[in-house]
Structure formats: structure tokens, C-alpha cells
Amino acid sequence: xxxxxxxxxxxxxxxxxxxxxxxxxxxxxxxxxxxxxxxxxxxxxxxxxxxxxxxxxxxxxxxxxxxxxxxxxxxxxxxxxxxxxxxxxxxxxxxxxxxxxxxxxxxxxxxxxxxxxxxxxxxxxxxxxxxxxxxxxxxxxxxxxxxxxxxxxxxxxxxxxxxxxxxxxxxxxxxxxxxxxxxxxxxxxxxxxxxxxxxxxxxxxxxxxxxxxxxxxxxxxxxxxxxxxxxxxxxxxxxxxxxx
Length: 244
Fold this sequence. Notes:
GO terms for molecular function: carboxy-lyase activity; hydrolase activity. Residues 13-150, 151-238 form the Amidohydrolase-related domain. InterPro entries: ACMSD (IPR032465), Amidohydro-rel (IPR006680), Metal_Hydrolase (IPR032466). The protein is of the alpha/beta class and 244 residues long. The protein has two domains: 13-149, TIM Barrel, CATH 3.20.20.140; 156-237, no CATH class. Helices cover 38% and strands 13% of the residues. The chain has helices spanning 23-26, 44-54, 72-80, 98-108, 131-143, 161-164, 175-185, 205-218, 223-237; strands at residues 13-17, 58-62, 85-90, 114-117, 147-149, 156-159, 190-193. Helix 4 runs parallel beside helix 5. The relative contact order is 0.08. The mean pLDDT is 92.
């Protein structure tokens, strides 16, 4: 039998998407940022058509990189459909501080309800913890809006097993979660940790290490995957440390 979507009175909301101008719109009112022409269609009209077909009630529109800090297209969409769309602005790390004022205007004047930080847009050699980054983050707090971070490289600590397990040592119930983590991130993004000194009174430090091997046999993990989790991942993340 074909699958039927169950009826619900709850609104269906898409929490992450982008729109950008059609080529015709880009040639006129909503130009693309130089060198940032999009690879596929993403117009507002196309989104509305897709949402209608899928019976999606609303969406959270994140300012696209193809228009960089020119928010006019997204602004027009959220103003035209205020009950359907919520806008998320793109943090502008301009060194003259103009992005801080822009964020304030986008929220207070244009109705944006969040801001996204993209580390790739910061000036070369700078981090999002620069003075401009701190000023933008502070302004977001002052305005009371959520801050989203674009993460391009995520690592997960498989640590303090005694805290997350519902069973005593060797915490065999964590085999399933570990398997899911390996599938989702890869062993090259997982790092073992103990949460010393709290672990000493729980299982003891040595047994905290041995537990990962025992859990790994349940997954099962290969020897190379276990090597990554037990040390190689963190060594690759901090390449100047722990070398012979």
C-alpha cells in the first residue's frame, strides 16, 4: 500500500532553506554578488510552488551567500509573506563595523529573527572571535535573537561514559549510540575522553579506557576505527602536538 502522510493540525515548518534571484531578477533588482552565481534555480516562486505541493506551511529563510550581505531579496519575501516566512540574516564582519549596524537594522526595521555566522566570510587570518565577531555576537544578544553557526568541520567527544550510560561498567548500552556516531560522523571525527578526575570515583581511569574497547567489540569497530577514536583523531586535529 502507498504511504499516506497522516493528517495533523500542527503546522509544518521547514527550519532551513535559502532563496536567491532568478537570472532575470539578478539582471535587474536583485543582482548576485560578484563571482557567486548560484549553480541551480532557487527563486521565491519555485519555493512557493514546492511548499504548496508538499503542503508545507512556513519556512525559515537563511540569507544566501549568492547575495552575500545584500538582504533585499529575502527581505522582500518575508515582508510579502509575513505569516509564512521568518528571516535569518548573514553576519557581516566588515572591519569598519558597519555589519553591526546592519544587523540592528535588519532585526528592528526589517523583521529578521536570527543571524548566521559563517567563518569563511571573515577576513583572512581572522576568527569569528575577532573584535568584530564579538561585537556582532554582543549585538545579537542585545537584540535577543538566536545565533546560528555554519559548521564545516565537526568533531564529537565520546567521553564521560559513566554520565551518559544507564548501565554500570562497561556501559554496554552505549554500543548503539557509538555505532550511530560512527555512521554519522566517521571514526575520524570521534575522540575518546575520560572526564578525569570525576571518572576515578566511578569506574577508575584505566577501566574508562578499557570500556571503549569492550563497547567497540559490540558495534563492532575495526582496529583502525578504534585507533582513530582512541588517539589518532585528536592527534590529527592538533597536528603540532603528541608527535614522536
